[in-house]
Design a protein that fits this description.
Length: 155
């Protein structure tokens, strides 16, 4: 039974985390902190590349900016929220009796480590009027949606 549960867990997480709301296999979310400040959380599973999680963070920041009526956002801070997880398969012993002799073979338990990328960022949403110059460090939400959005695998 335990073996089948392990196989089912591997099948569920066998693919990289798609761009989706935060769920069992990861995803991305935005949480409003103040009127114009948001926390963006992005998590991947063991099959997700770290660069992909960075793309998810930037895309969610851009989409959130547009949803609240902004044109640009400024990254206030960003932190690595990656972690290493482990999965242990149990050891097994198998005994075969031939005549009066018993033969036992043993496979020891195995620990598998995998890297789960993650990123937390705080952004400030701003609106830049047409013809105005954006402040230093401001990122145009429409450009992120255009360039990053085109390469993101959606769930």
């Amino acid at each position: 039974m335990l073996r089948w549960l392990a196989v089912a867990a591997i099948l569920v997480t066998g693919c990289a985390t798609p761009y989706q709301e935060m769920g069992f296999v990861g995803g991305v979310s935005a949480q409003q902190m103040t009127a114009n400040t948001f926390r963006i959380l992005a998590r991947g599973n063991g099959y997700t590349d770290g660069v992909t999680v960075q793309d998810y963070t930037m895309l969610k920041a851009a989409e959130t900016t547009k949803q609240v009526g902004g044109t640009h956002f400024i990254v206030i801070s960003a932190d690595d929220a990656s972690r290493v997880a482990t999965f242990t398969t149990p050891g097994q012993a198998h005994t075969t009796v031939v005549g009066n002799t018993a033969y036992t073979s043993y496979s020891p338990a195995q620990v598998h480590e995998f890297f789960k990328p993650g990123q937390d960022a705080y952004i400030r949403v701003i609106t830049v009027a047409p013809g105005q110059t954006a402040p230093p460090g401001a990122i145009a939400a429409d450009e992120i949606i255009q360039f990053v959005g085109s390469r993101v695998k959606r769930g």
